[in-house]
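Open question from group meeting: does this chain pack into something compact, or does most of it stay loose? Before anyone orders reagents, we agreed to write out a predicted structure and look at it together. Recording both the input and the output here so the notebook holds the full record.
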Amino acid sequence: MDSAQRYIESCPIGCAAPLATTDIVLPEGPLLRCPECRQLVSQVTAARYWETMARFDLSDFNQPEGRELTRRFELARRRLRRIAALLDRKPEKIRLLDVGCSRGHFIEAAVDSGFRAEGVEPAPQIAAAARERGLTVRTGLLEDQCFPAESFDAITLFEVIEHLKDPALLLAECRRILKAGGVLVLSTGNAASWTARTMKARWDYFHIAQDAGHVSFYNPASLQRLATRCGYAVERITTARVRFVDKGNIPPPLYLLAKVAAELLNIPAHLAGMGHDMLAFLRKT
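Structure tokens returned:
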């Protein structure tokens, strides 16, 4: 691919309609929208995309501490309980693979909870750091690992698919190595959320300079269409959290009011599917 060429040329969900320009204008140009599934994509070039992706292998990448580390483990344990409930099995009977596992915090939580868990991470330095912590983590892309068919009961993809121009390739490989009735859990941002609709180009999730590698932005409908196309049944799609402003961009009193308003709308956003954090539970059909 020409490094100056746009990294994504067509709808990542597989729709045939040409992409249309939106009013969400970023440094790379306006976001593009698929008129069929409403998926949004960046106009970033291939060169810029790969430049930002290199950040995931920096020695100081993804090292949470204190309250943030505690929050991540609490979130991981909640997700693990849902996986066990969906499979109706005890954790020790579940073999789990975390794809794009970074330093392996989710794997650690899974092992601590009794799961037989391992991971795959494409960034060599970060994968090595996970292994140094005693975790089972392979280096490289999932497609290159050659796992036997139907190896896993559950696979997780947390904050991965927004980096991909052809997510169907990865979801197809996940389906191949999932057992019949196995569960795929993935998280990504919700580009149809109240946050995205209010903040538009101010939402940092859209900016590749702030969120490295973010080029493809889903909504519940586009995610469901992708899942169905790839051979999964959607068990549940949930969303959470709302934000309207960034701290430092407005006077402190106004920021406080906006933050309180967002907190009050967190429950309605969850119930209406309009939160900006999206979590999907899919099952191999």
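Observations to bring back to the group:
The longest helix spans residues 66-87.
The mean pLDDT is 96.
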